[in-house]
Specification:
Radius of gyration: 13 Å
Structural class: mainly alpha
Helix content: 40-55%
Largest sheet: none
Number of helices: 2
Order of helices and strands: HH
């Protein structure tokens, strides 16, 4: 598996606790690592993802990570 280095990840997501934010960042990294089939260097990637609300009104970090990674992978094509 290729190494992935994320120098800076900025997420603007209202309603997440600090723990949910850390869970989201870990999930994004793990899903990117599992999804990358080759190398590449992307100095800057920016995506906008519509909020995915759970039944409690707070965004679900797992579903949100999947949406973020999907959007990132589309930009990397």
């Amino acid at each position: 598996m290729d190494d992935i280095s994320i120098d800076r990840l900025i997420l603007e997501i209202p309603g997440l606790t600090a723990d949910q934010g850390m869970e989201l960042a870990r999930a994004v990294g793990a899903q990117l690592a599992a999804s990358m089939s080759g190398g590449g260097e992307f100095p800057v990637l920016s995506v906008t993802v519509e909020a995915l609300q759970s039944g409690t009104g707070a965004p679900d970090p797992g579903r949100l990570a999947t949406a973020i990674v999907s959007a990132l992978l589309r930009r990397m094509e």
